[in-house]
Design a protein that fits this description.
Two copies of one chain form a homodimer. Chain A has 202 residues and is an all-alpha fold. Chain A has nine helices and no strands. Chain A has a domain of 140 residues: Tetracycline Repressor, domain 2. Chains A and B meet through helix 6, helix 7, helix 8 and helix 9 of A and helix 6, helix 7, helix 8 and helix 9 of B. The structure holds a DNA duplex (30 and 30 nucleotides).
DNA sequence: ATCTGCAAACCGGGGTGTCGGTCTTTAATA
DNA sequence: TATTAAAGACCGACACCCCGGTTTGCAGAT
Protein backbone atom coordinates (compact mmCIF):
# COMPACT_ATOMS: atom_id res chain seq x y z
CA UNK A 1 0.00 0.00 0.00
CA UNK A 2 0.93 3.62 -0.57
CA UNK A 3 3.13 5.22 2.05
CA UNK A 4 1.19 8.49 2.18
CA UNK A 5 -2.05 6.64 2.58
CA UNK A 6 -0.67 4.66 5.47
CA UNK A 7 0.49 7.84 7.17
CA UNK A 8 -2.98 9.33 6.86
CA UNK A 9 -4.54 6.16 8.22
CA UNK A 10 -2.27 6.20 11.23
CA UNK A 11 -2.93 9.85 12.01
CA UNK A 12 -6.67 9.40 11.54
CA UNK A 13 -6.58 6.47 13.96
CA UNK A 14 -5.57 8.76 16.80
CA UNK A 15 -8.44 11.11 16.16
CA UNK A 16 -11.02 8.37 15.78
CA UNK A 17 -9.87 6.84 19.05
CA UNK A 18 -10.14 10.04 21.00
CA UNK A 19 -13.39 11.50 19.67
CA UNK A 20 -16.67 10.32 18.21
CA UNK A 21 -16.74 10.07 14.41
CA UNK A 22 -18.91 13.15 13.95
CA UNK A 23 -16.61 15.30 16.05
CA UNK A 24 -13.49 14.41 14.12
CA UNK A 25 -13.02 16.88 11.26
CA UNK A 26 -11.14 16.39 8.04
CA UNK A 27 -9.39 19.72 8.62
CA UNK A 28 -7.60 18.49 11.71
CA UNK A 29 -6.59 15.24 10.09
CA UNK A 30 -5.26 17.12 7.08
CA UNK A 31 -3.48 19.69 9.21
CA UNK A 32 -1.80 16.98 11.28
CA UNK A 33 -0.73 15.06 8.21
CA UNK A 34 0.36 18.18 6.34
CA UNK A 35 -1.78 17.29 3.41
CA UNK A 36 -4.23 19.17 1.24
CA UNK A 37 -7.87 18.33 0.73
CA UNK A 38 -7.24 17.47 -2.89
CA UNK A 39 -4.44 15.16 -1.97
CA UNK A 40 -6.54 13.40 0.56
CA UNK A 41 -9.53 12.85 -1.70
CA UNK A 42 -7.20 11.44 -4.28
CA UNK A 43 -6.60 8.53 -1.91
CA UNK A 44 -9.96 8.19 -0.18
CA UNK A 45 -13.54 8.45 -1.35
CA UNK A 46 -14.92 10.03 1.78
CA UNK A 47 -14.46 10.58 5.48
CA UNK A 48 -16.52 7.47 6.13
CA UNK A 49 -14.36 5.40 3.78
CA UNK A 50 -11.32 6.60 5.69
CA UNK A 51 -12.96 5.58 8.94
CA UNK A 52 -13.69 2.10 7.64
CA UNK A 53 -10.14 1.61 6.43
CA UNK A 54 -8.80 2.74 9.80
CA UNK A 55 -11.06 0.35 11.65
CA UNK A 56 -10.19 -2.44 9.25
CA UNK A 57 -6.46 -1.97 9.53
CA UNK A 58 -5.99 -1.18 13.21
CA UNK A 59 -8.99 -2.31 15.18
CA UNK A 60 -10.61 -5.37 13.67
CA UNK A 61 -7.37 -7.19 13.10
CA UNK A 62 -5.95 -6.74 16.57
CA UNK A 63 -9.26 -7.72 18.11
CA UNK A 64 -8.88 -11.10 16.47
CA UNK A 65 -5.22 -11.73 17.19
CA UNK A 66 -5.51 -10.74 20.83
CA UNK A 67 -8.08 -13.34 21.67
CA UNK A 68 -6.22 -15.99 19.74
CA UNK A 69 -3.02 -15.15 21.54
CA UNK A 70 -4.70 -15.90 24.84
CA UNK A 71 -6.65 -18.95 23.83
CA UNK A 72 -3.49 -20.79 22.88
CA UNK A 73 -1.77 -20.25 26.22
CA UNK A 74 -4.60 -20.80 28.63
CA UNK A 75 -4.59 -24.58 28.61
CA UNK A 76 -1.65 -25.03 30.95
CA UNK A 77 -2.90 -22.67 33.64
CA UNK A 78 -5.27 -23.12 36.55
CA UNK A 79 -8.39 -21.00 36.87
CA UNK A 80 -6.84 -18.92 39.62
CA UNK A 81 -3.81 -18.21 37.45
CA UNK A 82 -5.47 -17.82 34.09
CA UNK A 83 -8.29 -15.57 35.18
CA UNK A 84 -6.35 -12.56 36.43
CA UNK A 85 -3.94 -12.99 33.58
CA UNK A 86 -6.75 -12.90 31.08
CA UNK A 87 -8.45 -9.97 32.70
CA UNK A 88 -5.26 -8.05 33.09
CA UNK A 89 -3.82 -8.86 29.68
CA UNK A 90 -6.66 -7.20 27.83
CA UNK A 91 -6.11 -3.88 29.51
CA UNK A 92 -2.35 -4.17 29.50
CA UNK A 93 -2.40 -4.79 25.78
CA UNK A 94 -4.73 -1.87 25.19
CA UNK A 95 -2.49 0.30 27.37
CA UNK A 96 0.60 -0.59 25.37
CA UNK A 97 -1.06 0.23 22.10
CA UNK A 98 -2.26 3.57 23.39
CA UNK A 99 1.25 4.41 24.50
CA UNK A 100 2.48 3.87 20.98
CA UNK A 101 -0.05 6.44 19.85
CA UNK A 102 0.77 8.96 22.58
CA UNK A 103 -2.77 8.68 23.87
CA UNK A 104 -3.71 8.63 27.52
CA UNK A 105 -6.15 5.91 28.56
CA UNK A 106 -8.52 8.48 30.03
CA UNK A 107 -8.82 10.18 26.65
CA UNK A 108 -10.14 7.03 25.01
CA UNK A 109 -13.70 5.91 25.53
CA UNK A 110 -13.83 2.28 24.47
CA UNK A 111 -17.60 2.19 24.35
CA UNK A 112 -17.93 5.34 22.29
CA UNK A 113 -15.61 3.68 19.82
CA UNK A 114 -17.70 0.53 19.75
CA UNK A 115 -20.93 2.47 19.33
CA UNK A 116 -19.35 4.34 16.42
CA UNK A 117 -18.25 1.13 14.80
CA UNK A 118 -21.79 -0.14 15.11
CA UNK A 119 -22.98 2.90 13.22
CA UNK A 120 -20.38 3.40 10.54
CA UNK A 121 -18.68 0.05 10.03
CA UNK A 122 -20.97 -2.40 8.29
CA UNK A 123 -21.03 -5.87 9.75
CA UNK A 124 -19.45 -4.88 13.03
CA UNK A 125 -22.38 -6.32 14.95
CA UNK A 126 -21.58 -9.77 13.56
CA UNK A 127 -17.90 -9.42 14.33
CA UNK A 128 -18.66 -8.32 17.86
CA UNK A 129 -21.09 -11.17 18.41
CA UNK A 130 -18.53 -13.65 17.25
CA UNK A 131 -15.91 -12.05 19.46
CA UNK A 132 -18.16 -12.32 22.49
CA UNK A 133 -19.00 -15.91 21.66
CA UNK A 134 -15.33 -16.79 21.40
CA UNK A 135 -14.59 -15.12 24.70
CA UNK A 136 -17.38 -16.99 26.43
CA UNK A 137 -16.43 -20.33 24.91
CA UNK A 138 -12.88 -19.79 26.01
CA UNK A 139 -13.98 -19.03 29.56
CA UNK A 140 -16.35 -21.96 29.49
CA UNK A 141 -13.72 -24.49 28.54
CA UNK A 142 -11.34 -23.07 31.10
CA UNK A 143 -14.01 -23.44 33.76
CA UNK A 144 -14.84 -26.98 32.70
CA UNK A 145 -11.22 -27.98 32.88
CA UNK A 146 -10.89 -26.41 36.30
CA UNK A 147 -13.93 -28.28 37.53
CA UNK A 148 -12.40 -31.54 36.36
CA UNK A 149 -9.10 -30.86 38.09
CA UNK A 150 -11.03 -30.22 41.28
CA UNK A 151 -10.08 -26.57 41.50
CA UNK A 152 -13.68 -25.36 41.22
CA UNK A 153 -16.91 -26.55 42.78
CA UNK A 154 -18.55 -29.47 40.99
CA UNK A 155 -22.02 -27.92 41.07
CA UNK A 156 -21.07 -24.94 38.92
CA UNK A 157 -22.72 -24.45 35.55
CA UNK A 158 -19.82 -23.60 33.28
CA UNK A 159 -21.78 -21.61 30.70
CA UNK A 160 -23.54 -19.61 33.36
CA UNK A 161 -20.29 -18.74 35.10
CA UNK A 162 -18.64 -17.88 31.79
CA UNK A 163 -21.45 -15.45 31.00
CA UNK A 164 -21.17 -14.11 34.50
CA UNK A 165 -17.47 -13.33 34.22
CA UNK A 166 -17.93 -11.87 30.78
CA UNK A 167 -20.63 -9.50 31.95
CA UNK A 168 -18.65 -8.64 35.05
CA UNK A 169 -15.69 -7.63 32.91
CA UNK A 170 -17.76 -5.28 30.85
CA UNK A 171 -19.33 -3.86 33.97
CA UNK A 172 -15.98 -3.02 35.50
CA UNK A 173 -14.83 -1.63 32.21
CA UNK A 174 -17.79 0.65 31.60
CA UNK A 175 -17.81 1.82 35.21
CA UNK A 176 -14.18 2.77 34.90
CA UNK A 177 -14.99 4.88 31.87
CA UNK A 178 -17.84 6.56 33.72
CA UNK A 179 -15.82 7.14 36.85
CA UNK A 180 -13.04 8.57 34.74
CA UNK A 181 -10.43 6.64 36.65
CA UNK A 182 -9.19 4.05 34.25
CA UNK A 183 -5.93 3.70 36.13
CA UNK A 184 -7.49 1.75 38.98
CA UNK A 185 -9.16 -0.76 36.69
CA UNK A 186 -6.63 -3.50 37.35
CA UNK A 187 -7.07 -3.25 41.10
CA UNK A 188 -10.83 -3.38 40.76
CA UNK A 189 -10.64 -6.40 38.53
CA UNK A 190 -8.30 -8.15 40.91
CA UNK A 191 -10.51 -7.41 43.88
CA UNK A 192 -13.75 -8.51 42.28
CA UNK A 193 -12.11 -11.60 40.92
CA UNK A 194 -10.80 -12.56 44.33
CA UNK A 195 -14.30 -12.24 45.74
CA UNK A 196 -15.68 -14.40 42.99
CA UNK A 197 -12.96 -16.98 43.35
CA UNK A 198 -13.76 -17.43 47.02
CA UNK A 199 -17.30 -18.33 45.95
CA UNK A 200 -16.50 -20.76 43.18
CA UNK A 201 -13.42 -22.61 44.41
CA UNK A 202 -13.95 -26.14 45.64
CA UNK B 1 -43.08 27.63 34.32
CA UNK B 2 -44.18 28.68 30.85
CA UNK B 3 -46.27 26.21 28.88
CA UNK B 4 -44.41 26.74 25.61
CA UNK B 5 -41.11 26.25 27.34
CA UNK B 6 -42.28 23.00 28.84
CA UNK B 7 -43.41 21.75 25.45
CA UNK B 8 -39.98 22.51 24.00
CA UNK B 9 -38.29 20.76 26.89
CA UNK B 10 -40.39 17.67 26.39
CA UNK B 11 -39.75 17.52 22.66
CA UNK B 12 -36.04 18.14 23.14
CA UNK B 13 -35.94 15.29 25.64
CA UNK B 14 -36.87 12.80 22.94
CA UNK B 15 -34.08 13.94 20.68
CA UNK B 16 -31.46 14.02 23.41
CA UNK B 17 -32.42 10.50 24.42
CA UNK B 18 -32.13 9.11 20.93
CA UNK B 19 -28.98 10.83 19.66
CA UNK B 20 -25.75 12.25 21.00
CA UNK B 21 -25.86 15.94 21.86
CA UNK B 22 -23.78 17.02 18.86
CA UNK B 23 -26.01 15.17 16.44
CA UNK B 24 -29.21 16.77 17.69
CA UNK B 25 -29.85 19.95 15.72
CA UNK B 26 -31.88 22.95 16.74
CA UNK B 27 -33.69 22.81 13.40
CA UNK B 28 -35.27 19.46 14.12
CA UNK B 29 -36.30 20.46 17.60
CA UNK B 30 -37.83 23.65 16.24
CA UNK B 31 -39.54 21.88 13.37
CA UNK B 32 -41.03 19.29 15.71
CA UNK B 33 -42.26 21.93 18.11
CA UNK B 34 -43.53 24.19 15.34
CA UNK B 35 -41.51 27.06 16.61
CA UNK B 36 -39.16 29.60 15.12
CA UNK B 37 -35.60 30.28 16.14
CA UNK B 38 -36.46 33.68 17.50
CA UNK B 39 -39.15 32.15 19.61
CA UNK B 40 -36.85 29.52 20.97
CA UNK B 41 -34.04 31.86 21.86
CA UNK B 42 -36.54 34.02 23.65
CA UNK B 43 -36.89 31.19 26.15
CA UNK B 44 -33.42 29.65 26.19
CA UNK B 45 -29.92 31.07 26.10
CA UNK B 46 -28.37 28.31 24.02
CA UNK B 47 -28.62 24.72 22.89
CA UNK B 48 -26.45 23.71 25.80
CA UNK B 49 -28.70 25.55 28.26
CA UNK B 50 -31.66 23.69 26.80
CA UNK B 51 -29.82 20.42 27.25
CA UNK B 52 -29.07 21.17 30.88
CA UNK B 53 -32.67 22.09 31.61
CA UNK B 54 -33.86 18.90 29.97
CA UNK B 55 -31.44 16.81 32.00
CA UNK B 56 -32.37 18.68 35.13
CA UNK B 57 -36.08 18.28 34.70
CA UNK B 58 -36.38 14.76 33.33
CA UNK B 59 -33.25 12.81 34.08
CA UNK B 60 -31.60 13.93 37.30
CA UNK B 61 -34.82 14.07 39.25
CA UNK B 62 -36.09 10.63 38.33
CA UNK B 63 -32.67 9.14 38.99
CA UNK B 64 -33.00 10.26 42.57
CA UNK B 65 -36.59 9.29 43.19
CA UNK B 66 -36.16 5.84 41.68
CA UNK B 67 -33.45 4.79 44.04
CA UNK B 68 -35.29 6.24 47.03
CA UNK B 69 -38.43 4.42 46.02
CA UNK B 70 -36.58 1.15 46.20
CA UNK B 71 -34.53 1.81 49.31
CA UNK B 72 -37.67 2.34 51.38
CA UNK B 73 -39.27 -0.96 50.41
CA UNK B 74 -36.31 -3.25 50.48
CA UNK B 75 -36.14 -3.79 54.22
CA UNK B 76 -38.96 -6.32 54.43
CA UNK B 77 -37.69 -8.55 51.64
CA UNK B 78 -35.20 -11.39 51.55
CA UNK B 79 -32.16 -11.25 49.29
CA UNK B 80 -33.70 -13.73 46.87
CA UNK B 81 -36.85 -11.62 46.62
CA UNK B 82 -35.33 -8.16 46.68
CA UNK B 83 -32.55 -8.77 44.18
CA UNK B 84 -34.56 -9.64 41.07
CA UNK B 85 -37.09 -7.01 42.01
CA UNK B 86 -34.39 -4.39 42.22
CA UNK B 87 -32.71 -5.49 39.00
CA UNK B 88 -35.97 -5.75 37.13
CA UNK B 89 -37.51 -2.58 38.48
CA UNK B 90 -34.83 -0.36 37.05
CA UNK B 91 -35.41 -1.57 33.53
CA UNK B 92 -39.16 -1.79 33.92
CA UNK B 93 -39.26 1.79 35.08
CA UNK B 94 -37.07 2.92 32.21
CA UNK B 95 -39.26 0.98 29.80
CA UNK B 96 -42.41 2.66 31.04
CA UNK B 97 -40.91 6.08 30.67
CA UNK B 98 -39.76 5.37 27.14
CA UNK B 99 -43.24 4.24 26.23
CA UNK B 100 -44.62 7.58 27.33
CA UNK B 101 -42.19 9.18 24.90
CA UNK B 102 -42.98 6.85 21.99
CA UNK B 103 -39.37 5.71 22.00
CA UNK B 104 -38.28 2.15 21.47
CA UNK B 105 -35.72 0.82 23.95
CA UNK B 106 -33.36 -0.10 21.13
CA UNK B 107 -33.25 3.51 19.96
CA UNK B 108 -31.93 4.70 23.28
CA UNK B 109 -28.32 4.22 24.23
CA UNK B 110 -28.10 4.71 27.97
CA UNK B 111 -24.34 5.00 27.98
CA UNK B 112 -24.22 7.55 25.19
CA UNK B 113 -26.58 9.60 27.30
CA UNK B 114 -24.39 9.26 30.36
CA UNK B 115 -21.24 10.14 28.43
CA UNK B 116 -23.02 13.23 27.09
CA UNK B 117 -24.09 14.27 30.54
CA UNK B 118 -20.49 13.94 31.67
CA UNK B 119 -19.49 16.36 28.94
CA UNK B 120 -22.24 18.92 28.95
CA UNK B 121 -23.89 18.81 32.37
CA UNK B 122 -21.62 20.29 35.00
CA UNK B 123 -21.35 18.30 38.17
CA UNK B 124 -22.78 15.14 36.71
CA UNK B 125 -19.73 13.18 37.74
CA UNK B 126 -20.46 13.98 41.38
CA UNK B 127 -24.12 13.09 40.99
CA UNK B 128 -23.21 9.82 39.34
CA UNK B 129 -20.66 8.96 41.98
CA UNK B 130 -23.18 9.60 44.70
CA UNK B 131 -25.74 7.54 42.83
CA UNK B 132 -23.33 4.62 42.56
CA UNK B 133 -22.41 4.95 46.21
CA UNK B 134 -26.04 4.89 47.24
CA UNK B 135 -26.70 1.85 45.12
CA UNK B 136 -23.76 0.00 46.59
CA UNK B 137 -24.65 0.96 50.15
CA UNK B 138 -28.19 -0.23 49.58
CA UNK B 139 -26.94 -3.54 48.24
CA UNK B 140 -24.45 -3.78 51.06
CA UNK B 141 -27.01 -3.35 53.79
CA UNK B 142 -29.36 -5.78 52.09
CA UNK B 143 -26.56 -8.33 51.96
CA UNK B 144 -25.63 -7.76 55.59
CA UNK B 145 -29.20 -8.24 56.68
CA UNK B 146 -29.45 -11.42 54.64
CA UNK B 147 -26.29 -12.77 56.18
CA UNK B 148 -27.74 -12.16 59.63
CA UNK B 149 -30.97 -13.92 58.82
CA UNK B 150 -28.95 -16.89 57.62
CA UNK B 151 -30.04 -16.60 54.01
CA UNK B 152 -26.51 -15.97 52.75
CA UNK B 153 -23.17 -17.53 53.56
CA UNK B 154 -21.49 -16.11 56.65
CA UNK B 155 -18.08 -15.82 55.00
CA UNK B 156 -19.23 -13.31 52.41
CA UNK B 157 -17.75 -9.85 52.39
CA UNK B 158 -20.76 -7.61 51.99
CA UNK B 159 -19.01 -4.68 50.34
CA UNK B 160 -17.22 -6.92 47.91
CA UNK B 161 -20.43 -8.65 46.89
CA UNK B 162 -22.24 -5.34 46.58
CA UNK B 163 -19.58 -4.06 44.22
CA UNK B 164 -19.76 -7.33 42.38
CA UNK B 165 -23.49 -7.11 41.78
CA UNK B 166 -23.23 -3.47 40.84
CA UNK B 167 -20.59 -4.14 38.21
CA UNK B 168 -22.49 -7.17 36.97
CA UNK B 169 -25.58 -5.03 36.41
CA UNK B 170 -23.69 -2.54 34.33
CA UNK B 171 -22.06 -5.34 32.38
CA UNK B 172 -25.39 -6.85 31.45
CA UNK B 173 -26.70 -3.44 30.61
CA UNK B 174 -23.86 -2.38 28.34
CA UNK B 175 -23.77 -5.76 26.63
CA UNK B 176 -27.45 -5.44 25.89
CA UNK B 177 -26.83 -2.10 24.23
CA UNK B 178 -23.98 -3.57 22.18
CA UNK B 179 -25.92 -6.67 21.21
CA UNK B 180 -28.83 -4.50 20.21
CA UNK B 181 -31.27 -6.82 21.91
CA UNK B 182 -32.48 -4.87 24.88
CA UNK B 183 -35.67 -6.94 25.06
CA UNK B 184 -33.92 -9.98 26.49
CA UNK B 185 -32.25 -8.02 29.24
CA UNK B 186 -34.64 -9.19 31.94
CA UNK B 187 -34.05 -12.83 31.13
CA UNK B 188 -30.32 -12.35 31.18
CA UNK B 189 -30.48 -10.62 34.51
CA UNK B 190 -32.63 -13.33 35.97
CA UNK B 191 -30.35 -16.05 34.71
CA UNK B 192 -27.13 -14.49 35.90
CA UNK B 193 -28.67 -13.67 39.23
CA UNK B 194 -29.82 -17.24 39.72
CA UNK B 195 -26.30 -18.44 39.05
CA UNK B 196 -24.91 -15.98 41.55
CA UNK B 197 -27.51 -16.85 44.15
CA UNK B 198 -26.54 -20.49 44.02
CA UNK B 199 -23.01 -19.42 44.94
CA UNK B 200 -23.83 -17.09 47.80
CA UNK B 201 -26.77 -18.71 49.55
CA UNK B 202 -26.06 -20.43 52.86
C1' DA C 1 -47.64 53.24 25.39
C1' DT C 2 -45.30 49.39 26.60
C1' DC C 3 -44.18 44.82 27.22
C1' DT C 4 -44.46 39.91 25.88
C1' DG C 5 -44.11 36.14 22.69
C1' DC C 6 -42.97 34.99 18.58
C1' DA C 7 -41.78 34.93 13.32
C1' DA C 8 -38.71 35.65 9.48
C1' DA C 9 -34.75 36.99 7.58
C1' DC C 10 -30.17 37.02 8.29
C1' DC C 11 -25.10 36.16 9.95
C1' DG C 12 -20.51 34.19 10.32
C1' DG C 13 -18.30 30.09 10.63
C1' DG C 14 -17.10 25.60 9.71
C1' DG C 15 -18.49 21.07 7.69
C1' DT C 16 -17.54 17.76 3.56
C1' DG C 17 -16.55 17.26 -0.87
C1' DT C 18 -15.23 19.05 -6.00
C1' DC C 19 -12.56 20.77 -9.67
C1' DG C 20 -9.06 22.66 -12.65
C1' DG C 21 -4.62 22.69 -12.87
C1' DT C 22 0.56 21.66 -11.60
C1' DC C 23 4.40 19.02 -10.50
C1' DT C 24 6.75 14.49 -10.44
C1' DT C 25 7.53 9.97 -11.67
C1' DT C 26 7.28 6.27 -14.89
C1' DA C 27 7.16 4.12 -19.48
C1' DA C 28 7.60 3.89 -24.31
C1' DT C 29 9.80 5.09 -28.48
C1' DA C 30 13.17 6.67 -31.75
C1' DT D 1 20.27 8.16 -24.56
C1' DA D 2 17.13 11.82 -25.52
C1' DT D 3 12.32 12.86 -26.20
C1' DT D 4 7.69 12.54 -25.39
C1' DA D 5 3.43 10.86 -23.66
C1' DA D 6 0.76 9.12 -20.00
C1' DA D 7 -0.25 8.29 -15.19
C1' DG D 8 -0.10 9.33 -10.47
C1' DA D 9 0.35 12.48 -6.54
C1' DC D 10 -0.84 16.61 -4.95
C1' DC D 11 -2.44 21.55 -4.27
C1' DG D 12 -5.62 25.26 -2.95
C1' DA D 13 -9.57 27.76 -4.01
C1' DC D 14 -14.21 27.31 -4.02
C1' DA D 15 -19.04 25.51 -3.91
C1' DC D 16 -22.59 24.30 -1.20
C1' DC D 17 -24.90 23.37 2.84
C1' DC D 18 -26.23 23.50 7.49
C1' DC D 19 -24.91 24.70 12.10
C1' DG D 20 -25.95 27.68 16.40
C1' DG D 21 -27.12 32.16 17.28
C1' DT D 22 -28.70 37.37 16.37
C1' DT D 23 -31.46 41.10 14.87
C1' DT D 24 -35.48 43.30 13.63
C1' DG D 25 -40.17 43.96 13.51
C1' DC D 26 -44.92 43.05 14.47
C1' DA D 27 -49.40 41.60 16.64
C1' DG D 28 -51.90 41.47 20.71
C1' DA D 29 -52.56 41.86 25.59
C1' DT D 30 -52.10 45.05 29.56
Amino acid sequence: MNETKERILFIALKFFLSKPFTEVTMSEILKESGMSKGGFYHHFDSKEALYCEVVNKYLIGSLMTDIEKFSTTKLTLSFAEAMPMYLGSIFRLAGEKLKELDLKPEDVNLYNIMFDMMKYYKGFDDILNKFHEDEINMLKSLIEKSIETGELRKDIDSLSLANHIHALMHGISVLSVLDENIETINDRIQELFNGLYRLVKA
